[in-house]
Amino acid sequence: MIALDPDVLRSFIAIAEQGGFARAGEVVHKTQSTVSMQMKRLEEMLGVPVFKKDGRRNVLTPDGERLLEYAHRLVKLNDEAVQVFRQPELVGSARIGTPDDYAEAFLPEILGRFCRTHSQVEVTVVCQPSLTLAQMVRDKELDVAIVSCDEGMLAGEVVRREPLHWVTSSRHCVHLEPVLPLALSQLGCAWRKIMLETLESTGRPYRIAYTSSNGAAIAAAVTSGLAVTAFPLSVLRPNMRVLGEADGFPLLNAASVIGMLRQSGPSNPVTDALANHVAESLALPGGLPEKRLEAAE
Question: What sign has the CA pseudo-torsion 206, 211, 213, 218?
Answer without folding.
Answer: negative
